Amino acid sequence: MKETITTAVLLVLATGPALADITTQESMALDAAGIVKLHGTTTEMTADDRQRRDSEFHCEGFMSLLCGNAKSGEIIRLDKDLTWQLRPDKKTYLETAFPTPEERAMAQQKMQETLDKMKQCQQQQAPRGAPSKGDTSNCDLSPPKVDMRTTDEHATIAGHDARKSSVKMSQTCTDKKTGDICEMVYGFDIWMTQDPLEGTADKRAFQKAYLTKMGLDANSPQIKGIAQQFMAAYSGTLKDMQAKAASLKGYPLRTTFRLIMGGDNCSKSKQSDSDNGAGAGGGGLSGLAANAGGKLLGGLFAKKNAAGANDPSQGAIAANAPPPLPDSYVQVIAFTIETSAVSTAAVSADQFELPAGWTREYPKAAKNSEYSCPNNKDK
Question: Domain range for residue 176?
Fold first, then answer.
C-alpha cells in the first residue's frame, strides 16, 4: 500500500501540474482608408497541452466579392507534436508535424543566410546610390519621437474595468524636391484591466511550450542574434518604447493601432498630385505619398474625415474612434482587437479532435528558392 501511494506521488510530480482550461473570445475590426473593411471573431480554447482556434471573418463593400465570409480553424496538439489546419467550407484538414531539432536548425541557418545576403545586397547597392523599393530616399527623416501616457478614461470590457493608455510614435518626412513636410503618426490605444483573470497564466505557459517546440524560444541566443540584426536600425527607438511600456501594468483587453499621415505643410504640391492622378483636392503628400502609394493616399484627402472610422457598423473601431482629424490629416488604417469574453469552464475533450468524416489534404511541394538581390536596372 505504501509503495502504491509513493508511486502515485512520483507520477504526479513527474508530469507536473495540469493547466487550467480557458476559453477566450475576441473580436477584430480593420478599416483601411474606408476602402477595405474587415471584421471578425475568434474563439480560442486551451486545455493543458491542447489548443483550438476557430475564426470567422467578413468583408464589406466591394471586398465582399473577394473574401465574403471566411471561416478557418486550427488545433494544436503538443502531446502529438502536430497541428491540424481546419477548412470548414471543404470539410478538410491539413496535418503538419512539428519540426524536428534538425529541421529547426536548418530553418534557423536558412534564415541567417537570407539575412546575411540581404545585408550584402544593401552594401553592394549603397555605392551606386540606387534606392530600394519602398525606401524613403526622397525624404529627410526626423528622429522618431515616442510619447506614452495613461489617461483617466475607463470602460467596461468583457465584464472588467479597463483603463486606457496611449503610446504614440511620430516622425516627419521632408521631401527633398518640394520641401513638403509630412508627418507619420503610429499610435496604439491600449485598454488594460488590473482585475485578476483566471487562466491567463496557463495560456501563456501553453504558448511558451508551443514556441519552444517550434524552435522559436525567445531566449535562444541565435534567435536573439537574428532579431537584433534585423532590428538594428530601430534599436534606439525600440529601447525608448520598451522603457515607457514597462510602466504599463495589467492585462490588455482592447488594443487599437492607427496610422495617420498629413500635416499643415504636407500640401504644397496640389498641382503635382493632380498631374499624377491623385485628383483635385487630393492634398499634397508629394514624395512621401509616392513611396506609400500616391494615388491611394492622395485620394484619401478628397474623402477626408475617414467616414469608415466613424461608421457605426464598424463595431470595435467605431466604439474607439478618435476625434475628427484636422483637414490636413488622414487616417490611413485602423485595426482593433478586443477580448469580448473569458471563461474557465471545462472544455470538452472532443473539441481537440478532428471532426468525423473530414478528409485529409496534403500540401504541395514547396519550391526551394534562394534570395537574390533586387534588380535596379530599371530605376
Answer: 19-108+137-361
In this structure, of 94-98, 258-262, 355-359, the range with the lowest mean pLDDT score is 258-262
The predicted pLDDT at position 173 comes to 87
> Inter-axis angle of helices 221-230 and 101-125, to 10 degrees?
20
Cα–Cα distance measured from residue 221 to residue 309, given in angstroms and rounded to the nearest whole number: 42
Is residue 375, in this structure, part of any structural domain at all? Answer: no
The pLDDT tens digits of the residues spanning 107-131 come to: 878 877 887 887 777 666 654 444 3
pLDDT digits (tens, 9 = 90+) for 186-201: 888 999 999 988 888 8
Q: Report d(CA 260, CA 305) in Å as an integer.
A: 12
Nearest by Cα to 86 from 94, 98, 78 = 94
Instruction: Please state, in angstroms and rounded to a whole number, the distance separating the CA atoms of residues 118 and 169.
Output: 27
What does the pLDDT average to over 312-325? Answer: 47
Is there a domain that residue 357 lies in?
yes
Residue 201, domain member (yes or no): yes
Establish if 5 belongs to a structural domain: no
**pLDDT score of 2 more than 70:** no
**Per the structure, how many domains does the chain have?**
1
CA distance 336 to 27: 8
Provide φ and ψ at 7, rounded to 5°.
Answer: -60, -40
- Compute the average pLDDT of residues 356-370: 84
Q: Are 49 and 209 in contact (CB under 8 A)?
A: yes
